[in-house]
Amino acid sequence: MKKIFLIFSFCLALFADDATTTIVNQGVSLPKIVVQDASNLSDVNLQNQFFKLMVGDLKVGATFEVDSSYYQSSYDGDYTTNLASTPALIVRYEVSGSKNSSMSLKTKVLNATNGSVVYESKFDMQDGNKFPFLAHRVVAEIVKSLGYSDVDWMNKMILFSRYTSAKTSEILIADYTLTYQKSVVNGGLNIFPKWAGAAQEAFYYTTYINGNIPTIYKYNLSNGGKSQIFTGRGMTIASDVSLDGSKLLITDAPEEQADIFIYDMRSRSKTKVTNYPGIDVNGNFVDNDSRVVFVSDRLGYPNIFAQDIGSGNVEQMVFHGKNNNSISTNGSYIVYSSRESNGEFNIYMISTQTDYIRQLTAGGKNMFPRFSSDGGSIIYIKDSGYQSAVGIIRVNENRSFQFPLKIGKIQSLDW
């Protein structure tokens, strides 16, 4: 059990509750935009939530300077209606329906200087409980239609495991703000969920059969079905999936010490990648699936290494800090959490192709980073001691946002 605990400690970070939304590194001047609500919902709380989502999404898009004040207007009202400032653009929307039915959203963007309509569309959603995705979808379309940086990652779901009691956890799906949450796997200890592909139709996770046999399952979101994939020993985890979805990187300990294996979903066979009499965990594909980066205690403390698939040559990737862990990859880039000399944890990004290194956070405990599908954003958990938050880093825009975390204790997450 001691060895399993050591491996487990390498693989995760624990977090808890509450924070307020903040923005740092605001950068250059951006076009000012106001949001006008033309809705008339019977559920006032839902109407307020939706407005906050629209404003929040526009802020996180990092394209506009967004006025947070609440403005109302009729949908077809004059462009000078209810303006307390002089913005460049007006986003006006009308949402209808309820959480218990379908919902519709019509929206348009007006030029605030002459009232011309520069964008207009309508969206429908069958399940009103998923209303945050309605806001995310329209904002992503607005940003794209106006020619700014793509933020389609807003439409992606977050996958996470949270503890519900001792040795018990559930797996949930959520939108990136955690406003929408749905439990999909519960009962027993269900940990380390990992999306099976970019389509987010299925995911892998580890559970324990008979209380002590770690087993990887694949869960199908469309029908709720699950299939057993792999039974291992010690801490058994599916940490990454190849680009074509045919191979998994698995941490397993058949000989007591954890190593990284490639598991072929077609042949149902595994191939050993690392071979070290210590702890190798958290393998991630990098460089078009030709290499594997992982966390190892080869230096006497957790650090990041890379190894070509089929080769025994191991390369040290990080040369600072005494506790570098919790990695994620996208293309040739790696993000990881590093423990500083003052006890804080910060997130860094490096490239496998150059000596590039960039610090992405400053201060506090910033852990468990995960790349968005396009690599332009990173989600992470920020723990400030007395409160915690989910953070979003917009890498190219040099901006960071934090959202309240009111979901208990997160064991791990994927995006």
From TrEMBL:
Keywords: Signal
Signal sequence region: 1-18
Listed Pfam families: PD40
Keyword Signal: yes
Top-level taxonomic group: Bacteria
Family: Belongs to the TolB family.
Record-given protein name: Translocation protein TolB
Species per Swiss-Prot/TrEMBL record: Campylobacter geochelonis
Annotated gene: tolB
